Each structure stands twice: as C-alpha cells, then as structure tokens.
Amino acid sequence: MDFILNKLKGDKAIWAVVAILALFSILAVYTSTKTLAYKYAGGNTEIYALRHTFYLIIGMVLMYIAHLADYNYYSKIAQILLYFCIPLLLITGIFGRDGRWIDIPFINLSFQPSELAKIALIMYLARVITLKQKTIRSLKEGFFPVFGPVVLVCALIVPFDLSTAVLIFITSLIMMFVGRVPFRYVLGVIGATIVAATMTISLLFVLPDETLKKGRLGTWHSRISTFKSAMATPYYEKDITKQATQARIAIVNGYPLGEGPGKSRQKNFLPEAYSDYIYAIIIEEYGIIGMMTIVFLYLFFLYRCILIFVKSPGDFGALLAVSLAISIVTQAMMNMMVNVGLLPVTGVTLPLISRGGTSIMITSLAIGVILSVDHYSSIKKKKSKKPNTTNPTSLVNPFKLGKL
C-alpha cells in the first residue's frame, strides 16, 4: 500500500473518492445489467460488469498518465485538440449513429466525440481566459474570443445531445465569471439564453406533429410534456411504464435502509437502469445511506478541487482544475436530480458510475489533469522562495480575500 501511495501524486483524497465511486460503479452495473444479460448475452450476468471494469481500468491508467504530465502542457495542446474536435463533431452529426456516436470498425466499440469536445473546450477556455486577462473587459478583444468557441461547440452538439450542450454551456459561464469576464456580459448571455429557451419550448407545443418527427424535436417535446405532467398528476394516476415513475418506485422500495446489494426489483422494469437511472437503483439497494454517500462523495471531490484552486500559484492551473471539477459535479447533480424527479429526462450519465466507456475514460482523463495541477502546483510552490502577490492579472478568487 505504501508503494502504491508513493506512486500516486496529487491529492490522495481525490484518489480515494475515485476508488470508492469505482467500487459503487462495479456493484451497481453488475446488478442493473442482469436483465440486459439475459436478453443479449445468453444469461451471462458477469459479462457487462467485467466489460465495465475493463473500462474503469483503462480510465485509471489514463488518469495516472495524465497526472504525471505538467499541467502547462495541456495549455499547449488545448487549441489543437479543440480544432480537432470541431470537424469531428460535424462529421459525427452527419454520418454518426444518432448524430452522437462514431462506431469504430473492427473492434466493435463506439466513441462519443461530444465528451472529448467538452474537456477540450474547458482546457481551451482556461488557456484563453488566462492569456487575455489584460483585455478581458473588452467586448471585442476579451469577450468574443472567449464566448465564440462556446457557441460553436454547443451549436454542433445541441441538435443531437441537448443535455451535454447545456452542461458545457453552464460550465463555460462559470469559467467566464471566475475568469473576470465582466458580469454584465455574463448576465446578458444568461438573459438571452432564458429568452431563447422560453421561445423554443413554447414553439415545441405549437408545431405540427409532422415537424416534431424531425430530428430531436419530438424527444424534447415528449420529455418536457412528461415532466410537466408528472409534476401535476397525483402519484397513483401516473403511467407506470414511464421512466420517471419506475425510478420513483425504485426509490420508494429503497426507503429507508434499502433492499440490499443485488436485490433491486425495478432493474427489470426501468429502462437504462445501468446508465441514466443507475442512481435510482443504488438508492433502491442501499437506501438513504447509499443516496447520501454518493452525494457526499461528489461534493467532497468538489471541495478538494476548490482547495487546489485556492492554493494553485498559477492562473491557468487554478481555473483548469476548478472548471473540470465543476463540469463533473454539475453532470452528477443533473443526473441525480433527474432520478429523483426534479428535472426532466436528460440522458446525462452519472460520472464514473454509469455504464459507458467514453464517459468513464474522458472523466478519468479530466480527474488526471486536476491531480496534475495539484501535484505540480505543490512542486512549484516549494521551489519558489516567496509567492507572487503583485500579479495584476490574477483571477478573482471567490473563496478567500485577496488574489491567487
């Protein structure tokens, strides 16, 4: 154990959180894929759990490799990676499966480019915001170069994956706020987004059925209508075939102490029990303790990343670490809110827990970058005789008085 701990750099608490989430993930995927195994794998109930464990191992390897590299290298490759993702998203939208997936030939695997674009955009924004601190208050020289790539990436993703586009957009707005983009610009974007979203939702309810069959319009209309109906309809009158209702039944079954590991009943009725609704299965099996444990782990992970942000001596590293953490935790909170009925169905998975190779590997890579920031920030602070407290381009630190 001492040998392993000596090899792992960065915040050991983050490593521990990742390990616990991975353990929860293996148990939850194993129990929630049994029906899937009998349907598609000839009753081999271990096959999906073993495959999921394989992806977790790959993710841990990527995390380890990423945390060994100096985080400043990610500033250099961020621009290249984003330029690579933009045409990749365009190709995926035209030729990919459902506009979201690229099937890799010969190895029978699928890849979701929007996940890679998410981390690429975050790294790129951290780079641009840091470099443009002297002109960040200028609309032309500061705001447009920062906000332009966000609009482009979200525009390529939103027709096929609205939830991921929303997640990217929210993370980008938080990055702009932390990066000293004038609040009036950020507030203007929020206001324009609310107006556009309201108009779009209203339009969905007046379009003819033939139009709603095109693209994802019908899916958006169905999810909003289902959520609206679920909020207004008494529980006993709900259609039990709906995902949201099945998730609520799973949660009720698990109150207060849970059915026990592997004893979920709703996994046989709940669609996507191993991905979008895996949190409901965890609650059903582990009760309130499991529910609160998962929430605590994500919040504790965010807390440790905020500490990295506070103590990091460099603007780029600080903004990069906290932004990646916000992206991961925001996605987790969106998934959990969907599971308990506080948000419409989104299709967002639970990071490091839901079944899905692309999500696991990209999330692991992001955590590896965060650990790199912590590790190399500590090294630089030790080498520095005294911290630089007079840098006029330091980012706003909302967690303590003074500058980074």
Structural notes for this entry:
The chain is mostly helical. The chain has one domain. The chain is 68% helix and 1% strand. It has helices at 2-7, 12-32, 34-40, 47-68, 72-95, 113-131, 139-157, 162-178, 183-204, 209-212, 217-232, 243-253, 278-311, 315-339, 357-383, and strands at residues 102-104, 109-111. Helix 6 runs antiparallel to helix 7 (139-157) and helix 6 packs antiparallel against helix 14. The chain starts with a helix and ends in a 21-residue tail after the last helix.
In the predicted model, the low-confidence regions spanning at least 5 consecutive residues are 235-241, 389-393, 398-404
Distance between the termini: 35 Å
Q: Compute the average pLDDT.
A: 85
Q: In what order do the strands lie side by side in the largest sheet? A: 1-2
Taken as a percent bin, the fraction of beta residues is: under 5%
- The assigned structural class equals mainly alpha
Percentage of residues assigned to helices: 55-70%
Secondary structure tally, helices? 15
Supply the number of structural domains: 1
What is the H/E string?
Answer: HHHHHEEHHHHHHHHHH
From the alpha carbons, calculate the radius of gyration and give it in angstroms: 22 Å
State the shape. Answer: globular
Major sheet characteristics: 2 strands, antiparallel
Give the total of beta strands. Answer: 2
